[in-house]
């Protein structure tokens, strides 16, 4: 009898708890639908109570396009609601408020979305603590200084030599080929050299390493995790979801982290044995990270932190660099007058290397503003990360671009949306690298709304490294080859994986241009 009484009591308690949960959900969703300060923001009604629309867009590889479409459906809207607790903005003032260095941006901390990207520890990208981020940045800032760039250049040149040898074979055969595929192999080997002390051998093999697909799977899993409302529990909870596609992504994440552990362990064992002919220790990015100390506290990163930074470096450097070089080749092929102007500048600056036979030193190359503006214009139109990098509003709430947002709401500005804003960029869908010097538009506003490398104190610390190898690669390719699209009428769009990539494969034809260049110089 006692057992029956206990069972009845437990059943009653369970029923009461269920009833309270249902009541809570009804009340919170009623508030979100009708009474929240966010209720009047434009957006699908379901975004008021659920992240399902955004999750579906992510599954379709159209998350960025989905957010942009919300602004297109609501002309003149400064902000749209993308979830129960998330808002995207499309206005320069929002960038200053959310990401800026000003005091008004101090209260905007990284949202719980970033917790999904903390793997074996907090990386500079994933840490939500401003104090921790500032300390990490102090520790590694010298790793990305001008002097460090010079020490990295031999590894860039070595990898580029391998790449050019492969391109020479295509130029000899003049067979059309997928150059973006080879850019991906180049950046994978290069980041292996810089982050792990050795390349992956993918250029030699002519095929990608397993590691590259694991990076994509891990990032997609993190993006799905970040849409859940449970903060640091998101990853664990999603890993229990028995959906085959989710489990495949989770297993990819685990394999990816194990690969990074083994590679970094090997790097640790070799960091003192790899000595250059000069007698100095190898000075790549990871060597700098291993030796880095916080100048204020003397703190160094432990193995798990370095492992997290390694994982972050591989994503940031390899994936984003290859896709940017792809867009530069595409647009330069479609705009021969800009291409020829850059070639003329290159030949004038490098008279002894007009056939592109040698890598171009970045100390001279970085003075060619048109080449760098081509990179910036590609990143404006096709930022690798197109969706918003979310920040939480201060607890007391705030006004952003004239819109009141309560505290604890994830807000951000999608790089791909603001980068095509007609209010900021005249003729925004046209590739015009000279807009950055010609005065075509408000240059200050355009610089504010350029989010290709992020903005504020958390913008990409590796920007100079990326610009170094991207401009070196494109400069040498232009001097060395005539590059033609197999289909001159090709119009490339974008498709979203973790990053925005071309929506289809395409091919180019290479021809060596050394002889014609020399003849032109003689004439």
TrEMBL record:
- This chain belongs to the protein called Cytochrome P450 monooxygenase
Q: Would the keyword Oxidoreductase be found if you checked this record's keyword annotation? A: yes
Q: Which family does it belong to?
A: Belongs to the cytochrome P450 family.
Q: Which organism is it from?
A: Lophiostoma macrostomum CBS 122681
Which cofactors is this protein said to need? heme
One of the entry's Gene Ontology molecular-function terms is:
iron ion binding
Residue positions binding heme: 460
The question of whether Glycosyltransferase is a record keyword is answered with no
Give the stretches traversing the membrane. 6-27
Q: Which key words are in the record?
A: Heme, Iron, Membrane, Metal-binding, Monooxygenase, Oxidoreductase, Transmembrane, Transmembrane helix
The record's PANTHER family line, in alphabetical order, gives: CYTOCHROME P450, P450, PUTATIVE (EUROFUNG)-RELATED
């Amino acid at each position: 009898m006692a057992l029956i009484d206990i069972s009845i009591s437990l059943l009653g308690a369970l029923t009461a708890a269920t009833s309270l949960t249902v009541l809570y959900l009804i009340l919170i969703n009623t508030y979100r639908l009708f009474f929240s300060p966010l209720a009047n923001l434009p957006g699908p009604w379901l975004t008021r109570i659920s992240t399902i629309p955004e999750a579906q867009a992510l599954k379709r590889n159209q998350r960025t396009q989905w957010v942009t479409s919300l602004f297109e459906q609501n002309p003149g809207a400064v902000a749209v609601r993308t979830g129960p607790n998330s808002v995207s903005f499309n206005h320069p003032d929002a960038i200053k408020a959310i990401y800026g260095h000003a005091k008004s941006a101090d209260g905007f901390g990284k949202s719980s979305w970033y917790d999904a990207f903390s793997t074996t520890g907090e990386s500079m990208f994933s840490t939500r603590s401003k104090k921790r981020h500032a300390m990490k940045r102090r520790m590694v800032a010298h790793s990305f200084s001008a002097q460090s760039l010079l020490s990295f250049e031999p590894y860039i040149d070595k990898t580029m030599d391998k790449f050019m040898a492969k391109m020479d074979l295509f130029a000899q055969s003049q067979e059309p080929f997928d150059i973006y595929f080879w850019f991906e192999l180049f950046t994978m080997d290069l980041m292996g050299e810089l982050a792990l002390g050795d390349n992956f051998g993918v250029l030699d093999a002519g095929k990608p390493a397993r590691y590259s697909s694991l990076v994509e799977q891990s990032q997609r899993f993190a993006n799905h995790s970040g849409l859940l409302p449970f903060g640091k529990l998101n990853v664990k909870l999603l890993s229990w979801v028995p959906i085959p596609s989710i489990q495949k992504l989770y297993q990819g994440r685990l394999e990816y982290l194990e690969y990074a552990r083994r590679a970094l362990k090997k790097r640790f064992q070799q960091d003192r044995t790899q000595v250059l002919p000069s007698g100095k220790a190898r000075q790549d990015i990871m060597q700098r990270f291993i030796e880095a100390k916080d100048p204020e506290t003397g703190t160094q990163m432990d193995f798990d932190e370095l492992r997290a930074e390694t994982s972050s470096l591989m994503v940031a450097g390899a994936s984003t660099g290859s896709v940017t070089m792809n867009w530069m080749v595409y647009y330069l092929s479609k705009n021969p007058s800009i291409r020829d102007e850059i070639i003329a500048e290159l030949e004038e600056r490098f008279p002894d290397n007009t056939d592109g036979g040698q890598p171009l030193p970045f100390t001279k190359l970085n003075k060619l503003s048109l080449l760098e503006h081509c990179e910036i214009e590609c990143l404006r139109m096709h930022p690798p990360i197109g969706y918003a990098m979310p920040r939480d509003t201060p607890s007391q709430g705030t006004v952003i671009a004239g819109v009141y947002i309560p505290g604890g709401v994830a807000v951000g500005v999608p790089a791909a949306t603001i980068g095509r804003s007609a209010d900021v960029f005249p003729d925004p869908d046209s590739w015009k690298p000279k807009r950055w010097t010609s005065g075509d538009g408000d240059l200050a506003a355009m610089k504010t709304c350029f989010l290709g490398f992020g903005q504020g104190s958390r913008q990409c610390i590796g920007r100079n490294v990326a610009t170094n190898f991207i401009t070196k690669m494109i400069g040498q390719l232009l001097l060395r080859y005539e590059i033609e699209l197999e289909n001159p009428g090709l119009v490339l769009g974008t498709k979203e994986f973790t990053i925005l990539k071309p929506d289809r494969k395409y091919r180019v034809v290479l021809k060596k241009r050394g002889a014609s260049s020399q003849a032109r110089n003689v004439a």
